[in-house]
Amino acid sequence: MIPNQLMHIALITFEEILGKSGLNSLLNFSGMEAFIDTYPPNDLGLDQDLVDFNRLIIGAIELLGQAAARPILFRSGRRGMQTIIEQFPDLLGLGGVTPEKADRGARFKRLGEIHRVLTDASIGLFGEIYTLCENKEGLVLDIDPCFWCHGVVSSSEPICHTAVGTSYELARWVLGDPVTVRETRCSAKGDECCRIVIFRPEPDER
Ligand SMILES: [Zn+2]
User: Fold this and answer.
1) Would 28 be classed as within a structural domain?
2) How many structural domains compose the chain?
């Protein structure tokens, strides 16, 4: 089970982006009518089922279509991470974490450290599904099995746009603009895992 706060943040984020009636349509469509006007409390009680998180995301893709869902899911990921950073940093181990002003190389190193903290906290919440490593390209996060796209088996392109949005916002918080984040593998299109890459920034110009 996952914390009430996660589902709470997901629902207020979707309400902000889709509007109240848009969110209600999505909840109806996804068989989650029970959440209409009754969001989980904003606390750390472990009362929420990860399956519902997955249903919400998959429901958005099925209801809106992949092309229309993409920017909405990306934005919801960004907004969700922003809310966590600003209001609920303890949820993902980010309490007291402050990115320093430094050159881009030093900031990228700091991003690796902060991402490690967040990944460990996420493993505590979601289980041993994350592997974080650094290579020449940048920071590489593998998710297997991936609860964002679980249940979709026939996509021709990566669909974990929410996960890309959360990584994008985290990277932007530490590195500043611009950042490049892409999902380079996705279980939904038959890859062995979902892979989110935060690309190493160009060195500062001199
Ligand atoms: Zn994926």
Assistant:
1) yes
2) 1
Span from the CA of 184 to the centroid of ligand 1 (angstroms): 9
Separation of 191 CA from ligand 1 center, angstroms?
9
What is the model's pTM?
Answer: 0.91
Give the domain CATH number at 123: 3.90.1520.10
pLDDT along the chain (206 residues), means of 10: 90 94 96 95 91 91 92 93 91 85 88 94 91 96 93 86 96 93 95 96 69
What is the rounded CA–CA span in Å between residue 22 and residue 184? Answer: 30
Distance from Cα 141 to the centre of ligand 1, integer Å: 11
CB distance 163 to 183 below 8 Å: yes
159 C-alpha to center of ligand 1: Å? 5
